[in-house]
Amino acid sequence: MNTAGITASMTGDNRTIAAIATPMGRGALAIVRISGVDVQRIAGILLDPAPAIPRHATHCSVFGANNEEIDDAVATLYVSPHSFTGEDLLEISTHGGLLVPASVLAAAISAGARIAEPGEFTRRAVLNGKLDLLQAEAIGDLIDARSSAAHRLALRQLDGGLSRRIEGLRKRLLSLEALLAYDIDFPEEDDGPVSRERITQSAEELQGALDALIATGEQGKLVHEGALVVLVGAPNVGKSSLFNALLGEARAIVTEIPGTTRDAIEAMLDLPGWPLRLVDTAGLRATTDIVERLGVEASSRYLQRAAIVLACFDSEESAATLVDLPKNTDGSIIKVATKAELVPEGVKIQADISVSAHTGEGLSTLLEIIEARLASEEGIPSLDAPILTRARHQVAVSEASTQVREFVRAWQEDELPASVAATHIRAAADALGELIGGVHVDDVLDVVFRSFCVGK
Questions:
Q1: Which CATH number is associated with domain 224-378?
Q2: Global pTM value
Q3: What is the structure's pLDDT at 288?
Q4: Distance between CA 57 and CA 92 in Å, rounded?
Q5: CATH no., domain 139-216+388-436
Q6: What integer pLDDT is reported at residue 104 of this predicted model?
């Protein structure tokens, strides 16, 4: 990554930082992290003995104010630049709980460190060239992953797969800009001017590559958030029972009282292909109850965004309430008869599938149907290939695509001097550079690290 021009002023505050890097609460161990120029001085104040050998775990005592022993711990020193942040870094493994790690952190603050901001350790890693912005985002995605697909995709991004794809496209844009500059500056060279067809072909190939990457954005969103699968139907037709049966645990309250679910309940179902974001909604019906009406309105909002809709019914009467469903959603509708165990033998149900939450009949087949519908409409997730996973990625690559498209139009119509048309190529390269972090902008960094946890 190009880190030229990165200075202490870009971080706003270059003092040594400290934070508890593990969740607060009862547990066996906790980790306090300290990073910055004063790490070894602070280690000498807090620890006896202070670690002297980098990357070597040292058994030590931790001391606070008035030389009072706080804990019996293990400390590991990482010396710049061979650390996560690129700075001197100290990790102290303490006993868990609330008091011990908080006391160690307080002692570090008293010795001269300050509390780290959310994501500040990772931000320093980016500013010091240890990671690019896409890899930093992958760390956040890895921590937040709610499915094996999201976990696998985050690992690939952390490994630099998407970064290499973006950097490759950026280099191709810079090469195209160089061709244009050569033609402008040295039109009479022995090799002759660069043909317009060569430049057009290069730009159009770049346009196609950028558009192909943009097309992965919908898959990335589905993997990251889960494909939205909404259960709808009249009250008491078995939606919540089906929801719980698919999850294998009781998440929704199931009773014989119509209208029990008054708001949407969400849960993630981790499947080998697409992760599913299951939503159990309030029964669709007309009601004068204010709370129930709010639940029905929430159901309608989920329907508008659904990838798959499970239209649940247990009788001809409840099936009739779903007649207008196609008007309220663009999602693929699967008709589900929910109480197969109650259907008399020999009676045919007009449904895509009959299931029973009580006996388990049809549940695995229903999941197979859902996955088949998603595969048909969204394709098979390519988790080993670079995929755009965030809105920031989509915006940057779309901007690059737009700039290349504008260049191609201006170049083919010969409406601008080559030097002016080339500014579109430079703008496209800058958009991709900002995405990786080769071009650093403080407000971009703020957006990336705003949602990070303290200590990471």
A1: 3.40.50.300
A2: 0.76
A3: 47
A4: 9
A5: 1.20.120.430
A6: 97
Kindly state the average pLDDT of the residues 43-59.
96
Q: Helix/strand/coil (H, E, C) string of the chain?
A: CCCCCCCHHHHCCCCCEEEECCCCEEEEEEEEEEECCCHHHHHHHHEECCCCCCCCCEEEEEECHHHCEEEEEEEEEECCCCCCCCCCEEEEEEEEECHHHHHHHHHHHHCCCEECCCCHHHHHHHHCCCCCHHHHHHHHHHHHCCCHHHHHHHHHHHCCHHHHHHHHHHHHHHHHHHHHHHHHHCCCCCCCCCCHHHHHHHHHHHHHHHHHHHCCHHHHHHHHHCEEEEEECCCCCCHHHHHHHHHCCCCCCCCCCCCCCCCCEEEEECCCCCCEEEEECCCCCCCCCHHHHHHHHHHHHHHHHCCEEEEEECCHHHHHCCCCHHHHCCCEEEEEECEHHHCCCCCCCCCCEECECCCCCCHHHHHHHHHHHHHHHHCCCCCCCCCCCCHHHHHHHHHHHHHHHHHHHHHHHCCCCHHHHHHHHHHHHHHHHHHHCCCCCHHHHHHHHCCCCCCC
Predicted local confidence at residue 188, as pLDDT: 53
State the CATH architecture for 8-132: 2-Layer Sandwich (3.30)
Residue 356 has pLDDT above 80, yes or no: yes
**Residue range 69-82, pLDDT digits in tens:** 999 999 999 999 99
Q: What percent of the chain has pLDDT over 70?
A: 83
Greater confidence (416 vs 338) lies with 338
Q: Which pLDDT belongs to residue 422?
A: 86
Query: Residue holding tokens 């003995």?
Result: 49
Please state the domain extents for the chain. 8-132, 139-216+388-436, 224-378
186 pLDDT above the threshold of 60:
no
